[in-house]
Amino acid sequence: MAGPAGAGAVAAAFVLLAAALVLYGPPLDAVLGGALSLQEARPPRSMEQAAALVRSIVPPLGARKYKGQDGRIGVVGGCREYTGAPYFAAISALKVGADLSHVFCTREAAPVIKAYSPELIVHPVLDSPGAVRAVEEWLPRLHALVVGPGLGRDEALLKNVQGILEASRALGIPVVVDADGLWLVAQRPALVQGYPKAVLTPNHVEFGRLCEAVLGARADGSSRHAAVLRLSQALGNVTVVQKGEQDLISDGQQVLTCDQEGSGRRCGGQGDLLSGSLGVLVHWALLAGPEKTRGSSPLLVAALGACTLTRQCNRQAFQKHGRSSTTTDMVAEIGAAFHTLFES
Questions:
Q1: How far apart are CA 278 and CA 249, in angstroms?
Q2: pLDDT tens digits for 110-132?
Q3: 3-state secondary structure the chain
Q4: Half-sphere exposure for 326 (CA within 13 Å, toward CB)
Q5: I need a labelling partner for 116 at 20 to 30 A (CA). Which of 4, 50, 53, 308 fits?
């Protein structure tokens, strides 16, 4: 049993640790909260502290950089019925700061997506017999993959995307899964089970479907925090972003809340903006590493940044356009919103 001198040394060490955490680390209550109870873990004390974490992963611009260094992002999705979603995801990735943005879509969707923007590299391969092989050839050149925007639920397409997800995982490429990509994961959870570089971004309906598939029951609506934590843990600590009035983000260890002010406008396409921007931020966060994120999971920080940015774009667009705001208006706000949150 420690004597008075030993007890004093322990107390002094604790005081020094607390001071160091205040100066250089996450808030002490967040650290202790995470140690005592995973479900009681708290986000940074303010959105400004959250923004500071995201700022730490943003790579500086410089004349010596070469094209592609700050991000080569692939979007897998886009069919005859849905061409807007992959466009929004891919153009958002560029607007956030990726250097190159690819879209792997069906043959019919390709000319339409090309017509939306000359900035995008469009591959009309997703419905071809050799789709998996065609995308595999590009995977080593990509830093992250966004899977699902505008995908649809055609069985042949879903089978090809299953192969693409398996190939991406084998190569260790980060994947953000959204929209009908989540439908596929709900049918085959093993595609992402235990993969530390996967992020799922379900809305309310998609979250319920995933809980039913993975946990065997719909989520209990009494505690969203507990539900998102349980789902992440059941998937092997895959990062889950549950979109809603407040966005909840969990890696199975803690739950962060994004309550950045947005607006009451809920037009289609906002989730595509989030998934595209998240693809870039995931790449930046993994490149920066936990030392830049003060020990927090890089994917958690990336997700918090993407959620915050999407809400800020929503707010700025609504201030200009009100009820008539669309995702096109939000995309136009990405540059200013990013600067306000993470550069000023």
A1: 13
A2: 999 999 999 999 999 999 999 99
A3: CCCHHHHHHHHHHHHHHHHHHHHHCCCHHHHHHHHHCHHHCCCCCCHHHHHHHHHCCCCCCCCCCCCCCCCEEEEECCCCCCCHHHHHHHHHHHHHCCCEEEEEECCCHHHHHHHHCCCCEEEECCCCCCHHHHHHCCHHHCCEEEECCCCCCCHHHHHHHHHHHHHHHHHCCCEEECCHHHHHHHHCHHHCCCCCCEEECCCHHHHHHHHHHHHCCCCCCCCHHHHHHHHHHHCCCCEEEECCCCEEEECCCCEEEECCCCCCCCCCCHHHHHHHHHHHHHHHHHHHCCCCCCCCCHHHHHHHHHHHHHHHHHHHHHHHHHHHCCHHHHHHCHHHHHHHHHCC
A4: 4
A5: 308
pLDDT level of residue 47 (50, 70, 90 thresholds): low
Residue range 241-256: mean pLDDT, rounded: 95
Summarised one tens digit per residue, pLDDT across range 24-40 is 344 323 332 332 233 33
**Per-residue confidence (pLDDT) for residue 277, from 0 to 100:** 98
Q: What is the pTM of this model?
A: 0.86
